[in-house]
Amino acid sequence: MESIADAHPTPDRTALQRDFINKLLTRIPEEDRWLLISKEVEGFSIAELSEMTGLNENTIKVRLFRVRQNLFAAAARLRSRLH
């Protein structure tokens, strides 16, 4: 799969990318998925996430780092199976 940030993706390519991302997101625990989406999609700050979850800010940062690392690894495994 080429760059996810293509300048002019086709509708088919957009659908494939969305499907790929959804498959990746199903591979992480629901709580981690919620945390990642809240930060990256909904734009909540680390401080806001800390307040909402009751977790310490450093804990949030570490969890987000680990979730991203797990997603990168899952993406590599999924890509290798698709090619």
Describe this structure in words.
There is one protein chain. The chain is an all-alpha fold and 83 residues long. It has a domain at 29-82: Orthogonal Bundle (Arc Repressor Mutant, subunit A), CATH 1.10.10. Helix content is 72%, strand content 0%. It contains four helices and no strands. The mean pLDDT is 87.
Short description:
With 83 residues, the chain is mainly alpha-helical.
Number of helices: 4
Biggest sheet features = none
The helix-and-strand class reads: mainly alpha
| Strand residue percentage | under 5%
How many runs of DSSP E, i.e. beta strands?
Answer: 0
Distance between the termini: 9 Å
Q: Which overall shape is indicated by the principal axes computed on the Cα atoms?
A: elongated
The CATH class name of the domain at 29-82 reads Mainly Alpha
Task: Return the string of H and E elements.
Answer: HHHH
In the predicted model, the low-confidence regions spanning at least 5 consecutive residues are none
